[in-house]
Amino acid sequence: MTPDSNAATKVAIVTGGASGLGYAIAEKFVNNNFRTIIVGRNEDKLKEAKANFGELCTYMVCDLSDLQQIPGLVSNIAAEFGTIDVLVNNAGINMKKPFVEVTDEEFQRIILTNVTAVFALSREVVKVMQPNKKGSIINISSMASQYGIPKVIAYTASKSAIEGMTRAMAVDLSPEGIRVNCVAPGFIATDMSAKALNNDPERKNKVLSRTPMGHLGEPADVAEAVYYYATEGAKYVTGTVLPVDGGNSIGF
């Protein structure tokens, strides 16, 4: 049964919503009657996701690393749907490369997409949320911000920034009724992680051996945490980082 668009309870934006964790988050929202706008660069993938999700889902093509596109994107969404209740900053890029081989340009490219674009999009969405005195912003971090992982220096810097920004944003915005929280996924079974781990048995064994639960998580596990932050169940929760990692961040 596809959810009825007339029963939509909240308007939510999910960046990178056409695949991986973003897809699972958007699916959870749609199944709970959130009018969900998925944003990404690949129109074919977005179309396919929208077809799967049904009429409660809309997609918008936007390369968030082109910062000039962001104000127009947000004003279009606000004009079409009247408000924005939830923003999930999920879109991000990674690069696996030895530290000394990472160029300034490569480092900046990851910071631009994973940090600057998150800031710019959040700022524009907050302007829409402020008159309503309510809203929930959920950032997506990573185990890379919890401990050192080799060969991902730029990604690690970006996700550490996201956790710091989550706390700073929460202090600035919570007095206005806008909550800001962060989910830090551990090792989740997605196409992206499968490529990385299946080609590197040593890394995969290390991941599993330091995860007390002994297996990878599922995208739905992350979606459940994001959904919690987006709902009234978390109305007194702000500025937090929730690891969804099978105990990986405390594993030995």
UniProtKB/TrEMBL annotation:
Keywords tagged on the record: Oxidoreductase
Organism superkingdom: Bacteria
Enzyme Commission code(s) on record: 1.1.1.-
InterPro entries per record: KR_dom (IPR057326), NAD(P)-bd_dom_sf (IPR036291), Sc_DH/Rdtase_CS (IPR020904), SDR_fam (IPR002347)
GO molecular function: oxidoreductase activity
Xref: SMART domains: PKS_KR
Enzyme class: oxidoreductase
Ketoreductase domain boundaries: 10-186
Annotated Pfam families: adh_short_C2
Family stated for the protein in its record: Belongs to the short-chain dehydrogenases/reductases (SDR) family.
PANTHER family cross-referenced by the UniProt entry: OXIDOREDUCTASE, SHORT-CHAIN DEHYDROGENASE/REDUCTASE FAMILY (AFU_ORTHOLOGUE AFUA_5G02870), SHORT-CHAIN DEHYDROGENASE_REDUCTASE FAMILY PROTEIN
Protein's name in the database: SDR family NAD(P)-dependent oxidoreductase
Organism whose genome encodes this protein: Pontibacter rugosus
